[in-house]
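Record 1 of the preview.
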Amino acid sequence: MVLYIVRPRKCKKVYAKPDVTYFKPRAIPMLELKEVALTVEEFEAIRLKDYKGYGQVKIAKMMGISQPTLHRLLSSARKKIAEALVEGKAIMIKGGNYSLKKKIKKKKTKKR
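->
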């Protein structure tokens, strides 16, 4: 008998949960609609890279993950979003392995 030890998945840091967690194409009844599931970490990676415009080094550091892991998150999220747009599927954002962090506040400097 071979016993495999699996490395536990690292908890990713997320600074904002989505306000809206479901996107649906118009004119397709819910009963006929297929869905694509996006994790909260994938949403956060897309938010920071494509919406906020941060670099991958900064995002990886913020989320507490390596750059290759961030690249995999971005690739997976973009593929799912493209699939939903091209095939007319809904996008549902839920789940994942993350911890919600407070936003980083910049230190104020005193004017002299």
